[in-house]
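User
Take a look at the entry that follows and flag anything odd:
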Amino acid sequence: MKKIELLAPAQNLEWGKAALLSGADAVYIGGPSFGARKKASNSLKDIESLVKFATPYQAKVYVALNTLILEQELPAVQKLLWQLYQTGIDALIIQDMGILEMDLPPLGLFASTQTHNNSLNQVLFLEKTGFKRVILARELSLKEIAFIKSKTSVQLEAFVHGALCVSYSGQCYLSYALGGRSGNRGECAQPCREPYILQDYQGKVLKKQSHVLSLKDLNRINDLELLINAGITSFKIEGRLKDKTYLINVCAAYRQALDNLLEKKGLQKSSLGKSDYAFIPNLDKTFNRGYIRYFLEKREKPMAHFKTPKWQGQLLGKVLKVEEKSFVLEKLPLDGSGLNSFQDVKAGDGISFFDSFGVLQGSFVHKVVENTIFLQNLKGIQKNTLIYKNHDAQFEKKLLNPLPTKKIGVCLKFFETPTGFGLTATEEGGLSYSQIGVIKKVKATNPLKAQEIITKQLSKMGGTSFYLSSLTFDVSQDYFFPIAFLNQLRREVLENLWLLKQNKVLKTEKPIINQEPYFKDCLELEGNVTNSLAHQFYTKRGVKKIEKGAEAGGNLKNKALMTLKYCLSYELGNCLKNAPQTQKKFFLKNAKGTVLELKLDCENCQNHIYFKKLSK
């Protein structure tokens, strides 16, 4: 039966455990180094602990080793590969093809979205080379995904939730060009989230200090069935730098949505266990910049949030009157329909608002008396200011206390033997453990009472990670049993079954790396070749000309610093496809005086951003 995976980010060991308990079938985590989120690095010991935690649930742990590697770092990466293998992880997520020229451990290889997987040619090449899974570009539509799947058999993974890079992943050099911090090396400074003055080709100011490159966040929770039909088997949540409450809420929401869908379609999830929550998931109450589906079926508008890259929150209402330490709020319906679907605000909640300069500000609520809101700081609030709620203290508390739990279904069978009685426990993955207890057989004087006792005692799962799916009996007659005997038999069987489930057998088959010819004979800077092994990899596959990647000293002059499917002109309400070429450019200037030129590539329906100049 086809299995579907919900894949969640893990900033660290604690976050990884929370994700699995909240319903993730697998997690991806950064290792000690060479991960695309430098601030989310983890020790080998912590990764091994996460693997041990995941193993009983048949959940997977993948390590993101997906940065570009410089020449002097190759020996360290070679050593790290085998160290990660010894922790018991299931796969490596990589970007640098130089890794495939190394002595590889027996691990699955996943092609990071940083390898620019936006075409059939690229996916086919990766599949034939030996990758087990390809993580698709976020920009692909359903039709494009389905087309790729129809021509390939490799596993396809797609992002379904979280922050969006405005540039194609792996094709962004803006952070590196402006400040030396490379996104391809896990150090992105996120210049796309900065405000810019936007000018047209004649220098006319179109937007003043607007976040014109800051995309809204991805949310495809209502598109899961469409994606399954298109061929996706792994659904990826973004957010290795997000907090724990984000992780728990988003995982729970997608777990519930997927479970309903899998039951309907006769599919299975890829791990074991059932998660239980003390809250109702709500994606609107977790950090987001507004949600979009991002090219899944059509080009949406608006895709960006020009006013702020931060979390604005849900609309509460507008200010009627400002007093010395408080303001009076006129509540507004959340959906704009006139219905009374009002948001509540309580002490401890966080609110946000745009000040007179258009900058998002915030404060915590100190006290609420009817519609009067007392704040720690009223600066910037005036009459008619719209107030948003971006922190729900009660909801956040429910997410963490108690934490979600996850238990595995187990079937118990109590049976009679010549010398006593036995108990077999079979968990939902098919693993069983049996134990026999020797005891004198005593016929029950009160069969009904005896049956009640045995059922009650064997049904107790206590503090185990199991829940009872079924209990059956195979005995010749009703017997009397001491409660202590039943409890000990049940406890020992479940404890030993759990120990069995913790066994992790390291893989022994190394990936087979084939010398599949590359579909181009020239690799320019955008090929991201930063070491001799990557150069060797492509040379073996027929590439004649290979430019150095930017991080290895490649020349960025006249090179696109960003390639975007997002079209800024279309976002502004003006498709320039049929306009003269001279009109198809814009200029972006930030607070430091950096000037960028954005050119429209209407033939390919893309935008490209180039370095223009730096003010002295």
